[in-house]
């Protein structure tokens, strides 16, 4: 009897195991589909991220190249600028010396005109303020 009971129990375990295996077999395609979808999403995300990183590296490389070109250009132009400045100093000093005697009479003629314009602008502003105050409602 014990032997029969053990065989029956063994048969029950085997049949239950095959049923659970068949249930697992039915769930496997769904799990495989989920894993496949996850791997595809991961792959597309990695591809996108890699492309973005490559573009950023190219942009950084272009920026560094542009900065290098600017530095080279500046290094080439700097000596020329210094030479031009050195040559222009005597010329500007000469022009300054020639214009100083002329500036006195010109300034004496411009000062009355500037004072007149200033007075007219102040008068105009005063009139605008008076008209603006007249438009405001009484408080």
TrEMBL record:
Organism: Alosa alosa (allis shad)
Keyword annotations of the record: Signal
Gene Ontology annotations of biological process type: lipid transport; lipoprotein metabolic process
The UniProt record lists the keyword Glycosyltransferase: no
Protein name from the UniProt record: Type-4 ice-structuring protein LS-12
One Pfam family of this chain: ApoA-II
GO cellular component terms, semicolon-separated: extracellular region
Signal peptide residue numbers: 1-20
MF GO annotations: lipid binding
């Amino acid at each position: 009897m014990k032997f029969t009971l053990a065989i029956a129990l063994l048969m029950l375990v085997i049949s239950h195991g095959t049923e659970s295996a068949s249930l697992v077999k039915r769930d496997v395609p769904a799990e495989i589909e989920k894993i496949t979808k996850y791997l595809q999403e991961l792959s597309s995300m990695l591809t996108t991220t890699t492309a973005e990183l490559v573009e950023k590296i190219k942009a950084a490389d272009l920026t560094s190249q542009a900065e290098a070109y600017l530095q080279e250009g500046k290094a080439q132009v700097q000596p020329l600028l210094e030479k031009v400045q050195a040559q222009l100093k005597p010329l500007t000093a000469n022009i300054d010396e020639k214009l100083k005697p002329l500036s006195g009479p010109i300034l004496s003629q411009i000062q009355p005109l500037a004072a007149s314009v200033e007075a007219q602008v102040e008068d105009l502003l005063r009139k605008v303020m008076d008209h603006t105050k007249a438009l405001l409602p009484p408080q």
